[in-house]
Structure formats: C-alpha cells, structure tokens
Write a structure and sequence with these properties.
Layout: H1 18-23, H2 25-28, H3 37-47, E1 54-55, H4 77-81, H5 108-124, H6 133-141, E2 160-161, E3 165-173, E4 177-184, E5 190-197, H7 201-220, E6 231-237, E7 240-246, H8 252-258, H9 266-285, E8 288-289, E9 298-300, E10 305-310, E11 315-320, E12 325-327, E13 334-335, H10 352-355, H11 363-378, H12 388-399, H13 404-409, E14 416-417, E15 420-421, H14 428-436, H15 449-461, H16 472-475
Antiparallel strand pairs: 1-6, 2-3, 3-4, 4-5, 5-7, 6-7, 8-13, 9-12, 10-11, 14-15
Helix pairs in contact: 9-11, 11-15, 12-14
Length: 501
C-alpha cells in the first residue's frame, strides 16, 4: 500500500462528536501528538522530498544545493567489516508499518485520511500518455507501492515512475538499492539507468549528498566532457530517492570477471588508465576527492566485445571493442572544505595514510588508481587482504619498508614494535604474504620498454608518502602515455571555475 506519508493518530473521543469536530475550524489547525509522533515527524521530513524532480533537460535555474553532512554509514562492505559488523544489517526491519491501521471510532481524522488516500490514488492513476492503454495499465499496477523487508522498492517490469520512466529490466543490486533499465518517455524513449535507493534513511541521506556532487559536476561540465557519469534527473518516489543516469556498459571489473580474469592488453590498459586519470584530475582540480575508486566504479560506455578462441588454453577469450570509460558512484565523494571521515576507500584500494589514520586528501585517489592499473595489467588484485596488519605487511613485501616518519606519526602504534612493523613471517598469515606477494617489478609479464614504463608509473602512484606521490597532472605527462594522440574527446578541460561551494 502507499506509504509516502504517515497519518497521525486519531483524536480521542472525549473531544466531541465527529460532526462537532468536523465543523470546528479551530480543530482543523490542531495537530495531535501521539506517543509515536517522533517517528511520524521523521517520516514527514522525508516526505518533503516527495515527487520533487530536477531534470537537466530543462536546465532549471532554481538549483537547490543540499547541506553536505557526513554520512559514515554510506560506505562499502569493507568499511564496517573492520568494525566487526556487516555493512547492512540483515536483521534490520523497516521502521514504517505498511499495514496502516484503521481508526475504529469513525473519527474525523479517519475520514480525512480516507479522502487523502483517495486523492493520491486518483493522482497515481493518471498516465503519462492519456491515449496509451499500456501506460494506464502500468499506472494501475503502481497504485500499491510497497517495500520489502530490506527497504527495496517492490516493482515489476512495465511499471511506471513519475509518469515518465517505464521499467524494462533490473541491471544490478547493491547495498544502497537497485539499478533498473528504464525507457524515458520524455526523452523520446531513450534508455536510462535508474538508481532506486532503499527506503532507509542512511542510504537516502547519502543519495542526497551524491545528488549534490552530481549537480555540481553537471553545472561545471554541461557538455559532459569530463568522463564522469552523467546525471539526467532525480526525484523522490514514495521515500525512495531515484537518480537517472546515462545507460552504460559493464564495469571494468565485471568484464574482467566474465573473461575469466584475463588481463587487458597493454594498449587497452594505457587508454583506460589515461581516461581514469583525466576524470579524477577533473575532480581534484575542483577540490573534490572521489575516495572510492575501484574497477567496479569504472564502467565501459559500451562493453560489446569480439570473441576469439585460444587454442593453447582451449577457451574463448573476449576483447572489448571500445575502451571508452566513465567514472561512477559519487556517494562518498568529499569536497576539501567538508568533514573528512577517518576511513575511506574499499579495502584493496586503500592508501597507507588512511590505514594509519594520518589524514587524507586527493593523493589517496592516486594510490587507488595505481592499484586499479595494476589489476588491469595482471588480472588480479594487488593487495588481497581484509586485515590492516596483513595489508601493511603486503605493502612492505611489494613496495619496501614503510617510512619511519609515518610510523612515528601514526596513532596506530599497535601495528609496530620498536619502529618496525610488528609482523611474524613464521605464522600462517606470514607464510601467506610471503607466498602470494613479491616485489612490484617481478610482476612484469614482458621486458618490453612499454611494460617498464607502465610499472614506473605505478611505482610513482604507490609512493608511501602522500606528499611525494605523483599528482594526476604529472601522471598524464608520463612517458607511458606518450604514444596516445590527444583527441577532442580526451583533451584537458578548463578548471578555472570552482564547483566546491
């Protein structure tokens, strides 16, 4: 049933008959405060976003910037895994009761509620195209808006949202909600990806923060040249924040996984790395840090591929036709002037200054990019661990000792003993690190100059000290990228304007 608005508890019968209360103007302005009013007030605040839509097709000048507030819970699984708890509590149940109780005393409040319910039903029954029977049928199916126990919107293929988006299929699911493919009937039937956030306050708040960043990015780059995903529209659908994006292909990780983790060829690694550096440089130039870069958040514009058969390995192998990419997921992006949480980034791509809680800024994105480029080249993750101490041991095994300055400065002295990492190589964990990690250059698959240049770039990105780590402006000028010809769609952009405020 519809749950976009909570009804207040009915008035007590001692306040007079139904007719007396109905005729009383004074009563109309009175609002009861029941024992459950706190939950009601919270839901009414959420309802303030109800059917509020902002479309970039209209280029509205009235752009509302949400207050950026830190939302620590809107992170990836590994954020809270270290705290010993799942990112999303499976035992969590929605705080709203969808089976709305009916007043049994025939009060004015119950009558008024029925009229509100009837008006909402009439509004939802209107279809986008009055002449379209399919649209009317879809709208009728959408009369009852319900959530499952985890807060996901329950929908069916063919349902319509906002009298505009017709659901065609489900593209994926995450802790935040689901992504569906829709037909946008206001844009000539164009296909879009619609991100439907769970009706859970922490995810809704994070979605509002993401919308704020995406609005700033769209304002800065209206022609969509910066290789960040394009947001077309956003709205609140019965407590579910929804964001419409351009429809893209598979993520670079999913393509790798579907291809049996076969590494990308070095010429594809070069082009993909160059684009990622360009996109994130655009963010850094505008005082924004992504904080959650990983192959899952880098999507191909089109993931069509050519299939060849490998006689030696007796298997089919895929080669993506176009390596054009977009950077996505700005739910954790942080402006320089905003609160910086202690822990950011998904575990495998987390910089040492974050693990040691030394403070972080844009260089933590550069470290993540270094890990991503390595993964594209070899087909597997550089730091395959879920433990801080083991992660640091892997870093030392691959990159050399952690600088003494960082050891002295960190509050995490429990990881060190007498100025050195407290790590026993004779334990099972120690043997795992010794057997599965080796110095960085030993991962080279060829002695060709291109491969050595690539690893020289990765080494500069995986510098321990953030102040000594290469900037993305410098990285784009690295000899590894010399063979790339700058084209109009990969040129540098003007970064003179500041979108951070």
């Amino acid at each position: 049933m519809p749950h976009s608005r909570r009804f207040r508890s009915s008035e007590r019968s001692s306040r007079g008959s139904f007719h007396e209360r109905y005729r009383s103007r004074k009563h109309k302005r009175r609002r009861s405060r029941s024992s459950s009013s706190e939950r009601d007030r919270r839901h009414r605040r959420e309802g303030s976003y109800h059917v509020r839509s902002r479309s970039y097709d209209d280029h509205s000048a009235d752009r509302r910037a949400y207050d950026r507030r830190y939302c620590d819970s809107y992170r990836r699984n590994d954020y809270s895994r270290e705290r010993g708890e799942p990112y999303y509590d499976p035992e969590y149940r929605h705080s709203y009761d969808y089976r709305r109780s009916r007043d049994r005393d025939g009060s004015y409040r119950s009558c008024k509620s029925s009229r509100r319910k009837h008006r909402r039903r009439r509004r939802r029954s209107r279809s986008f195209s009055r002449s379209s029977s399919r649209s009317r049928q879809s709208s009728r199916r959408a009369k009852s808006v319900e959530d499952d126990d985890e807060g996901h919107l329950i929908y069916r293929v063919g349902d319509w949202l906002q009298e505009r988006y017709e659901i065609l299929s489900t593209l994926g699911e995450g802790t935040f909600g689901r992504v569906v493919q829709c037909m946008d009937h206001r844009r000539g039937g164009a296909r879009v990806a619609l991100k439907i956030i769970k009706n859970v306050e922490k995810y809704k708040e994070a979605a509002r923060l993401e919308i704020n960043v995406l609005e700033k990015i769209n304002e800065k780059d209206p022609e969509n040249k910066n290789l960040c995903v394009r947001m077309f529209d956003w709205f609140d659908f019965h407590g579910h924040m929804c964001i419409a994006f351009e429809l893209l292909g598979l993520s670079t990780f999913d393509f790798l996984k579907d291809n049996n983790y076969l590494p990308y060829p070095i010429h594809q690694v070069r082009h993909m790395a160059f684009q990622v550096c360009q996109a994130v440089k655009f963010l850094h130039d505008n005082k924004l840090t992504h904080t959650d870069l990983k192959p899952e958040n880098i999507l191909f514009v089109n993931s069509d591929y050519e299939l060849t058969y490998n006689l030696e390995k007796k298997r089919d192998e895929r080669s993506v036709k176009s390596t054009a990419i977009r950077v996505v997921d700005f739910g954790s992006a942080t402006f320089d002037h905003e609160h910086h949480s202690t822990i950011v980034s998904t575990r495998h791509y987390r910089a040492p200054e974050v693990i040691l809680e030394l403070g972080w800024s844009q260089p933590c994105d550069v470290w993540s990019i270094g890990c991503i480029i390595f993964e594209y080249y070899v087909g597997f993750t550089l730091f395959q661990t879920h433990d801080n101490r083991e992660h640091l041991a892997m870093m030392e095994r691959i990159l050399g000792p952690i600088p003494s300055r960082m050891i002295r400065k960190t509050r995490k002295q429990k990881y060190f003993y007498h100025g050195r990492l407290d790590w026993d190589e004779n334990t099972s964990a120690g043997r795992y690190v010794r057997d599965n990690c080796k110095p960085l250059r030993r991962y080279l698959t060829s002695e060709a100059e291109d491969h050595h240049r690539l690893f020289d770039l990765i080494e500069t990105m995986l510098e321990y000290e953030p102040s000594k780590r290469i900037s993305l402006n410098e990285a784009l000028k690295h000899p590894f990228f010399d063979v790339l010809e700058l084209e109009p769609n990969t040129k540098m952009w003007d970064s003179s304007r500041d979108i951070s405020r």
